[in-house]
Amino acid sequence: MSQTETTSKKQQQDHSNEDRPIIVKGARVHNLKDIDVEIPRNKMTVITGVSGSGKSSLAFDTIYAEGQRRYVESLSSYARQFLERMDKPDVDFMQGISPAMAIQQKTTSSNPRSTVGTTTEIYDYMRLLYARIGHTISPKSGKKVKKDSTKTAIQELLEQFDEGTKFYVLFSIPKHEEKGLEDELTVLKEKGYPRLLHINKENILDLTTDEIDTGEIEPKNYRVLVDRLALKSDDDTRSRIAGSLETAFREGNGRCSVKIRDGKELKYSERFEMDGMEFHEPTPQMFSFNNPFGACDTCEGFGKVSGIDEDLVIPEPDKTIRDGAIAPFTGEKFSRHLRDLIKVAARHSLPIDTPYQDLSKEVKNILWEGKDEYVGIRPFFEDVKSQSYKVHMRVFYSRYRGYSRCPDCEGYRVRKDALHVKVNDKHIGQVAEMTIGHAREFFENLELTDFEKEVADQILFEIRKRLKYLDEVGLSYLTLNRLAKTLSGGESQRISLANSLGSSLIGSLYVLDEPTIGLHPRDNDRLINILKSLRDIGNTVLVVEHDPEMIKSADNIIDIGPFAGVHGGEVVFEGDFEDLLDSPTLTGKYLSERKKIPVPEKRREGSGNSIVLEGASENNLKMLDVEFPLGKFICVTGVSGSGKSTLVHDTLYAAIQKQLGSYKEKIGRHRKVTGVNHIDSVEMVDQSPIGRSSRSNPATYTKAFDGIRDLFSNTRQSKIMGYEPGHFSFNVPGGRCETCQGEGIQKIEMQFMADIELTCEECGGKRYRKDVLQVKYRGKNIHDVLEMSVSEAIEFFVDEERITTRLQPLEDVGLGYLKLGQSAPTLSGGEAQRVKLAKFLSKPAGDHTLYFFDEPTTGLHFEDIAKLLDSFKELVNNGHTVIIIEHNLDVIKSADYIIDIGPEGGFAGGKIVGTGTPEEITKLEDSYTGRYLKEVL
Length: 937
What we know:
InterPro entries: AAA+_ATPase, ABC_transporter-like_ATP-bd, ABC_transporter-like_CS, P-loop_NTPase, UvrA, UvrA_DNA-bd, UvrA_inter. By secondary structure, this protein is α/β, with parallel strands linked by helices. It is 36% helix and 17% strand.
């Protein structure tokens, strides 16, 4: 066969490999019912279906797990022990799978050192940029610090002075602690430098001939003379000047000077110094706050130190100094410090009638550090701390304790001299404080010399590329120094997505988990375009999603159902969007609007009372005064990063918690909250797991299990055997199987492979001793009951009101498919949130509770959202108030009252765009929410 034929045959094979779909046959992970699917390569496939139908089981636990497992298996056993080990999914056959990457909704890191900049590697490239083209600027004179050399010194002389100018080449008399001046002069004579020049009078002392009294020689006025020269540009003279300067540098320990005859003295140094200060030459390590060399010594690179919390000392930054902005000086005991401050202010014209937040850095510095007779806030607290042997002083100090910005590095985290290095007049800390949008602008418009451009070309390409992707995924409002642990799940996921785009891999399989979470409908298009570009460069994109826009944009759609849990796990549709609209599936019905969530006929009037939050100014909030009318279903909306979570979670919820009881976390800055007396309690229903332990399950969480155990212990058989309710618990010794301690499985750790979980041999996975399993209620033992779904259990215990009242709410929020004994860690975030909601629905009506929900539609299908809205309706009708942060238009249109925050994210957000009913919001020109609401109303 000829060479050409072989090549063309190989190309055909490669081409057929590229087009070969991913084939999955006989998948049985969790509730999947032996399903077969085919996923086209290099296309975008969306997997949709009701919550709990098995979407994640197919996408993550089957396809991603197998792709990742095969990749890990291909590595050496040494490398494998450092990687997350994955179980082999329960599937008959898989073919055509690529190396897989999962981009999930979990906050990337809980590390207090990890920031948006370090996670995306932008900060690492910035360190390199500053080390290579940064200019070190002296803080004293503001001049650029540079090293001199023989070459630069000659160049300066030729540029500044005329030809024929006479000058001396000199160096200072060396100083040695152990040698006296006489010894030094003797050494200089021996070395061949017998002449000294008086720097002002310009008279020369010859050590060999002149009678010299060393007591009269003041070393600072004399220099050692190396050579007398006249400036000429011919080669001979230049080489003589160069030789003399080199000698002077060597003998002068890296420093020398040139004295122009009857003129000034020019000082040169081969060291990196200026204004009598020596600086470190920039290196990448110097700008790293995660490296002992680069981190600030005081705060060790955290940017904060334990001490006095500025927010507690100045609780109302919109107050003036005269009106008592400094809280510790408002009391009678320490008011003398305020009087001292007012005197100093009058003397130095300090603006004490300006709100604290508007004061300049210099004035704030005086307030904190003191001036003249005014002691200063920081020294005042040092004094209080020194008297901590007195109980009242300890109590006073503890009232203002917290974390404050590090005084040494000013919160920038890096060592002081790293902040002297600047690029375009900004040091690395100032750039890290910028939002991604501003940083992108800064790096696009850098003014550099041709040499700097050449050095920084590749570095800037990497920085700009990463900033562009972060901006495009809708994160322009995040600052580069924002801690990674403070990001929401959706933000973390979009950062991972931008990182994946930046890596420009091809031929991979990307599996994403609801990337539109936390995104306003305005930003969906940008996200969809990014996923398409990931597909277009040659990757297969698999998205688990409910968003109609995302489903519409997919090349291929797989709908799993028809219902949830045991009633799901089948492929009910496979094809494109047009065909889905005609299909009889729930997704098809909602997308084609044959089925829809109705707009409420009228909005509730509420109870007439309100909770009012005044002066909210945490993060980007602009001194907001917001009213939350009680007895209504309230929706807080706005684009990502506009300040919704800061307003609702960090400020309102935290402040109410503090008033109602003990709350230890940090509370967002605000003036006051009024109207809390109108509510009895407050509940935050978020998506954190209902329990981290595999022993926690829906039955134990809703307390239905207590009733079930009582029921079993009251049977005739139990009475004969002497069994108590505790014998029917798998958490305590007594009736549980002691071999597996009631887990039903035994874990066997493997060195280089995934740990193996085997069914317990003793109890056969049933968790209980054989004699306890003999006890039956209506023909079922305790294990059979735990294996029932919630719906089956409600029918089975129909006469037992104590149990059904606990379980019915689970059915109402659409979780009838969950098994009573399903372990808590296997529930999705949306399921966990609805289990909590069900627990609250089962509470007796009476007390007025204020419920907070954060994006409760996460992971929910249209059908589930309809059920969720019914649950909210029930809570409000029972006299409670529900406040939710949400982007889903079906939920927003069902609210009684909307608070729209914006208009943009980050600095351009934090204002109230409008409040009122959904109909009133649609009339607002500036409201993005209003524009999209118009279409659904």
